[in-house]
Design brief:
Blueprint: E1 3-10, E2 23-26, E3 31-36, H1 42-54, E4 78-88, E5 94-106, E6 109-122, E7 135-137, H2 143-151, H3 155-162, H4 176-187, H5 189-299, H6 308-385, H7 397-501, H8 504-565, H9 567-573, H10 582-643, H11 648-685, H12 698-738, H13 740-820, H14 832-889, H15 891-974, H16 976-1053, H17 1057-1100, H18 1102-1105, H19 1107-1161, E8 1169-1178, E9 1187-1197, E10 1200-1203, H20 1210-1228, E11 1234-1238, H21 1246-1262, E12 1270-1275, H22 1278-1282, E13 1289-1295, E14 1301-1307
Parallel strand pairs: 3-12, 3-13, 11-12
Antiparallel strand pairs: 1-2, 1-4, 4-5, 5-6, 6-7, 8-9, 9-10, 13-14
Helix pairs in contact: 3-20, 5-11, 5-16, 5-17, 5-19, 6-15, 6-16, 7-14, 7-15, 8-13, 8-14, 10-13, 11-12, 11-17, 12-17, 13-17, 19-20
Family: Belongs to the SMC family. RAD50 subfamily.
Subcellular location: Chromosome; Nucleus
Coiled coil: 220-254, 801-904, 947-1051
């Protein structure tokens, strides 16, 4: 069995949040005791156990927010909580569970967050297991379910049985609804019912799907037949298409030799055309060459008489001369460029020298100004310091240095004089300040003495006032003492009078008499109560008799209600009235109506299938008619696009005529080129017309030749245009031949369309008849369906009626048995009501006697209290008198002290007056000393500032002299006069060099112009030589072209153009016949291909493509679905039976354990045993009803069973709930040996506590052999612990000084 080994708590409720605050508890087998006062955190341990195992927060914790330690207690922003647990399962494998939480303070309160939940699987030695995943988090798996599986019990058992919170420990005696929820969770009834509902729903859905699948199967069978038909049509079309292809191949074979010979003829024609074109080209080149020769003869000024070789040599020598002239030109240009660059550099040097000379002149001017300023400053400072200076001292450096040294010495003397004066002033001021400090100290001492004397005088005067007040009070208290003496005498007399009037003994006797009367009434009340107790002992039987009578009346009323509710319907279903077995009779009627409805449904389904079949045929016909109409429309559109509304035969004849005309024109153009060339040749030989032989002039012959030549040039374009038109017309003719099958197909479709439409009308009429019959069957289904629904709705009430009849018979038998249980000596005339009335009267009398006794006691107590108050008042007056007497005795001493204090005040006043007279002269002396000090200090300051100002003026002039002297020395180092002379000499030399460069540049420019003129003359001569060379080359070319013209004319005369043209026309006629035949075949092939494509497209549709596969699959699916429906029905019955048997077995076991534990523990005699009563009720009255159990805890006495809730005491409620939990734990937690009892002794008397201890000891002894059995008991009752037998230690829970919960293990003998 699984068990718990260790629990660690941190930051939960009263347990601290720090690491050192973590508390751990190690659980021991077979029993673990936890002891602590109320509020120390014992129940928190149960809550942590439940939270670690299930992840659920305790009730009332605001979804975990109040479960974590409140951060406001220790003024923190957040609190972290953690619960760790170590458990072991029945295989001895360990698992650690860690759950962490956090509560954070926000503006509006607290926010709660679960950080993580982690489980770690360990081996039996506490190390990670090798056969499982070592660690899993709540982010990956459902840790709550994993922990429940590991422990071997469900969450409901853990929450409601094993670790039940004290507040929820009495749930077995809670209201029926909550009790049912608990037991349903424990048994898992809801999950079973959900499984049954799902099975029923699945079976119902499967039945509906089966109907649809059968209809779909018929549709797929229809598609399969259509697919077979289309496959045959496709095969026939493809075979015909192959035949046409073979015919087309034969036509192509016939055309091939014709095309080959036509190609040879075209090559011959092309050869003739090439010869003629080449002759025209050569003639054109010859003419162009003659014209160029004439043009060059006009351009050449000096013709060259030598040969072409000599001319080439002359041109090469000329080129060499020309190269020499160009080289000379380039050399002169480079020299000119170099001279210009040198001139620019000299000009830049001259500008730089001018700039440097100007800067030297400016510095020389600054040097002169610096010397003048230095001389002026020296004269001024020397005059102020009374030093003799020569006028030319600035020009003499040595004298200037000596003079500057004298000035520095005088300035040092001035500075020492200022320092000495400042020191003497400070010493004098310090002496004056010391005198002033002495006067101030004297003045302060005098003022302090005056303040001290005045304070002492004030304190003494306050003492005098206090003494005078006390003396007056004492003098007044003498009169008060006389009055007080009188009050004491009066109070003493009043006290003695009250004591004489109040007889305490008599009052006590009266009170004792009243107590005796009250005791008598109490005895009478007790006697009546005993009689009522006797009657109450049999009152349970009478009550049960009354309850049974009421129950019988209720059952009869319910029977009558049901009969009256369904009276009309019962008369409708049953012709003869019945008195029992209503459910069976109604079930028979229900089954009869069900069979009738099934027969009607079978007929309706047949009609529905026929309707679906006709609808499919109708849909297919509509689609086929639409397809045929669309095909006719598309074919007519295609025919229109080719014929444009004209008759097909007329258009075909016109196209054939046009082809013949274009072929004739094409042949004429092909032979025209040779004919034109032959005419041109004849005209050139003899200027006459080749046709009429009319003689022509030279101009006419030239014009005709030119015109024929132009026609020859146009022939290739005309031939190309004619061939293009011929090909276009032939293509159009072939297209017309191809649409011939389409025209035939349109005629065929127009003949079939009326037949298809007639067939559609017939199917639609048949479909209307089937729909009418189907609707009639559905209308006939209405009444039996209504009756079946009515019978179905009555089945539940009929069941209730049968049960009510059975209960009525049972209640009658129980009533007779209860009446036999009444005692024989029972006096029926004495009723509980009469005794209760007498008891009430005696109770009233007892209450009146008690009130009178209480009134007497209160009056007696008031008298005693009044005497006590009077005695206390008298004692107070006596104390006051003693105090007044003591004050009168101290009066002389107080007056003597008053005289001393008065004399002291007079002496202090004289001393203060003397001190004040000395204070004024000291203040006058101090003021005069301060004024003198300020006057002398101001004079010294002014004198010192004058000396410092003169010294700073001298210092400033000296700094200027030093600065100007340094500048003059810097200028002297530069030697500016000699530098300016050097700059003048270099500038003059640069200017002279620039003048020489200008002369050289002018000379080179003149030389360059002469060379350029010579070069131009040579270029003109070169052009004339080249024109001579070109003339000689053209003369050679003209001779070669003349020879080519003669050769081409001879070759054209050898070719026979007429025989080739005749053969060509015959071949073209044969090819046209074959082409027409092939076009017709291609038209037929196109039509057949359209049919094939159409069939393939239709067969490629999903409904036809996989029709056989879909049909077989659907057939198999129908068979599988039928098997599945049968299996679901059997599975539902098996699951329902298993649930009933499981619940019955477990409840018998639970009730057996409850009765055993009750007899073992309970020490009362009013209840023999308790048990859990279950009633099987149905939430659904139909045939597919669910198992639904109602639970009730009942108690039994003398074989009479009544509901325990509301009839038991608080202790019986606690004990009963505890016993039920123990029985549930014994039954359902065979895999988990842990049971926690939180405050099990609550509301139990001592006897039941002891019996509970004995029972627990026996349970522990019986489970000792089970190593994993563990009983956890949490209590505040130490006596209960001592009664549990051999307990060596326990765990104590308490709050430490910081109010945090602490767990401590304690030995029973007092050790830790």
């Amino acid at each position: 069995m699984s068990t718990i080994e260790k629990l660690s708590i941190q930051g939960v409720r009263s347990f601290g949040v720090n690491a050192e605050d973590m508390q751990s508890i190690t659980f021991s087998s077979p029993i673990t005791l936890i002891l602590g006062q109320n509020g120390c955190g014992k129940t928190t341990i149960i809550e942590c156990l439940k939270y670690a195992l299930t992840g659920e927060y305790p009730p009332g914790s605001s979804s975990g927010k109040n479960f974590v330690h409140d951060p406001n207690i220790f003024d923190k922003n957040e609190s972290l909580a953690q619960v760790k647990m170590l458990v072991r399962d029945r295989r001895n494998v360990q698992m650690s569970i860690c759950r962490s939480m956090k509560v954070t303070k926000v503006r509006n309160g607290l926010t709660f967050k679960t950080i993580d939940s982690t489980i770690n699987f360990l081996g039996s030695d506490g190390k990670p297991s090798k056969n499982s995943q070592e660690s899993m988090s709540s982010r990956v798996i459902n840790t709550d379910m994993a922990v429940s599986d590991f422990m071997g019990v469900s969450k409901a058992i853990i929450n409601s049985v094993l670790f039940c919170h004290q507040e929820d420990s009495s749930w077995p005696l809670d209201e029926p609804k909550k009790l049912k929820e608990k037991f349903d969770a424990i048994f898992g009834i809801t999950e079973y019912n959900k499984a049954l509902d799902r099975i029923i729903k699945l079976r119902k859905t499967a039945v509906e799907e089966l109907k649809v699948m059968n209809a779909n199967l018929k549709l797929l069978e229809h598609f399969k037949k259509e697919m077979d038909e289309k496959t045959m049509s496709l095969q026939n079309a493809q075979r015909k298409c192959e035949e046409i292809k073979e015919e087309c191949i034969k036509c192509d074979e016939e055309v091939k030799p014709i095309d080959a010979r036509l190609k040879e003829i075209r090559n011959i024609e092309f050869e003739i055309g090439e010869y003629q074109a080449e002759k025209v080209k050569v003639d054109t080149k010859h003419q162009s060459c003659v014209e160029q020769i004439a043009k060059l003869n006009r351009q050449i000024k000096t013709p060259f008489e030598g040969s072409l070789v000599e001319l080439e040599a002359e041109i090469r020598s000329f080129s060499q001369r020309m190269s020499e002239i160009k080289y000379q030109l380039t050399d002169v240009e480079d020299q000119l460029l170099q001279n210009r660059k040198t001139k620019e550099d000299q000009q830049k040097t001259l500008a730089k020298q001018d700039k440097e000379r100007y800067v030297a002149q400016q510095k020389l001017k600054s040097e002169q100004e610096c010397k003048l300023e230095l001389s002026r400053h020296i004269q001024t400072l020397s005059a102020q310091l009374q030093i003799n200076v020569k006028p030319s001292v600035v020009d003499n450096p040595q004298e200037l240095i000596d003079l500057l040294d004298d000035i520095d010495g005088n300035l040092m003397a001035k500075q020492c004089e200022i320092t000495e004066l400042s020191q003497s002033n400070d010493q004098a001021d310090q002496a004056r300040q010391e005198k002033i400090d002495e006067l101030r100290n004297e003045l302060t001492k005098s003022e302090q003495s005056i303040k001290t004397q005045e304070k002492q005088k004030a304190d003494t005067e306050r003492d005098i006032e206090s003494l005078e007040m006390n003396i007056k009070q004492i003098e007044t208290s003498q009169q008060q003492l006389k009055v007080l003496e009188k009050q004491i005498a009066d109070t003493n007399e009043k006290y003695e009078h009250s004591t004489r009037n109040f007889n305490q003994e008599a009052c006590r006797k009266v009170i004792a008499s009243k107590k005796e009367n009250r005791d008598k009434k109490q005895a009478q009340f007790k006697q009546l109560d005993d009689q009522l107790t006797f009657l109450s002992s049999i009152a349970n039987v009478k009550t049960e008799i009354g309850l049974k009578e009421k129950e019988l009346e209720k059952k009869n009323h319910e029977i009558q209600r049901v009969r009256s509710k369904h009276g009309d319907n019962l008369n409708k279903f049953f012709k003869e009235s019945i008195s029992s077995n209503y459910r069976r009779a109604m079930q028979n009627e229900y089954d009869k109506l069900r069979r009738e409805i099934d027969e009607l449904n079978v007929d309706a389904n047949g009609k529905n299938l026929a309707k679906q079949s006709h609808e499919i045929k109708r849909k297919n016909l509509i689609e086929e008619i639409a397809r045929m109409e669309k095909e006719v429309q598309d074919s007519e559109e295609r025919i229109y696009q080719k014929c444009h509304g004209m008759p097909y035969d007329e258009l075909l004849l016109r196209s054939k005529t046009a082809i013949a005309k274009l072929q004739l024109e094409h042949g004429a153009l092909k032979s025209a080129e040779a004919m034109y060339k032959k005419y041109i040749q004849k005209i050139e030989e003899e200027p006459s017309c080749p046709l009429c032989h009319h003689n022509m002039s030279g101009d006419e012959a030239c014009d005709l030749t030119t015109e024929l030549t132009d026609e020859i040039q146009k022939l290739p374009d005309n031939i190309s245009r004619t061939e293009k038109s011929l090909k276009t017309e032939q293509s159009k003719y072939e297209q017309l031949l191809q649409i011939k099958p389409t025209i035939d197909k349109v005629k065929e479709l127009k003949e079939k369309l009326p037949k298809k439409k007639e067939e559609l009308r017939t199917i639609e009429q048949s479909l209307g008849d089937i729909v009418s019959e189907y609707e009639t069957l559905m209308a006939r289904l209405g009444e039996p369906t209504h009756n079946m629904d009515l019978a179905n709705s009555m089945l539940g009430d009929m069941t209730l009626l049968d049960e009510a009849l059975k209960e009525s018979v049972r209640v009658k038998k129980d009533l007779e048995q209860l009446k036999l249980k009444l005692p024989e000596n029972y006096d029926a005339s004495v009723s509980i009501e009469d005794l209760q009335k007498q008891k009430a009267e005696v109770s009233k009398e007892l209450e009146a006697e008690s009130k009178a006794l209480e009134t007497s006691q209160q009056a007696f107590e008031k008298q005693v209290e009044a005497l006590s108050r009077l005695r206390e008042f008298l004692n107070g007056l006596k104390d006051k008198r003693i105090n007044l007497q003591e004050g009168v005795q101290n009066l002389p001493q107080l007056k003597e002290r008053l005289d001393k204090l008065t004399r002291l005040v007079i002496a202090i006043g004289m001393e203060v007056t003397e001190l004040r007279s000395k204070l004024q002269p000291i203040k006058q002396k101090l003021g005069a000393a301060l004024s003198e000090k300020a006057r002398l200090k101001e004079m010294e300051r002014v004198k010192l500032e004058q000396l410092q100002a003169k010294y700073m003026e001298y210092k400033s002039i000296d700094k200027d002299i030093q600065r100007l002297n340094e500048q003059a020395q810097e200028f002297a180092k530069l030697d500016l006069v000699n530098a300016i002379k050097k700059y003048d000499a270099s500038i003059n030399a640069t200017k002279e060099e620039i003048s020489n460069l200008d002369t050289q540049i002018n000379e080179k420019n003149e030389e360059l112009e002469a060379i350029k003129k010579k070069c131009f003359d040579q270029q003109a001569l070169e052009r004339d030589l080249k024109d001579n060379r070109e003339l000689k080359q053209l003369q050679l070319k003209e001779s070669a072209l003349s020879e080519d013209c003669k050769r081409l004319a001879k070759q054209l005369g050898n070719l026979d153009f007429r025989s080739v043209t005749k053969e060509k026309n015959e071949l073209i006629r044969k090819r046209d016949v074959a082409t027409v035949r092939r076009g017709e075949l291609l038209g037929q092939q196109g039509e057949i291909n359209n049919q094939v494509n159409k069939l393939q497209k239709e067969m490629a549709e999903p409904r036809y493509k996989e029709s056989m596969k879909n049909y077989m699959r659907a057939k198999f699916e129908v068979a599988v679905k039928q098997c599945g429906i049968e299996d679901l029905g059997r599975h539902r019955q098996a699951l329902d039976w298993a649930l009933i048997e499981f619940h019955k077995e477990k409840m018998n076991n639970i009730n057996s354990l409850i009765r055993e534990y009750w007899r073992m523990i309970y020490r009362g005699n009013d209840i023999d045993y308790i048990q859990i009563k279950t009633d099987d009720s149905a939430t659904d009255t139909s045939a597919d009803r669910r198992k639904n159990y109602n639970y009730c805890v009942v108690q039994s006495k003398n074989n009479s069973v009544i509901d325990m809730r509301g009839r038991c005491s608080a202790g019986q409620r606690v004990l009963g709930s505890l016993i039920i939990r123990m029985a549930l734990a014994e039954t359902f937690s065979s895999n988990c040996g842990v049971l926690a009892l939180d405050e099990p002794t609550t509301n139990l008397d001592r006897d039941n506590i002891m019996s509970l201890c004995d029972a627990l000891n026996r349970i522990v002894e019986s489970r000792q052999h089970q190593s994993n059995f563990m009983l956890i008991i949490i209590t505040h009752d130490e006596n209960f612990i001592s009664s549990l037998g051999k307990i060596t230690d326990y765990h104590r829970v308490y709050r430490n000084s910081e109010c945090k919960s602490v767990i401590q293990k304690v030995r029973v003998d007092g050790g830790h």
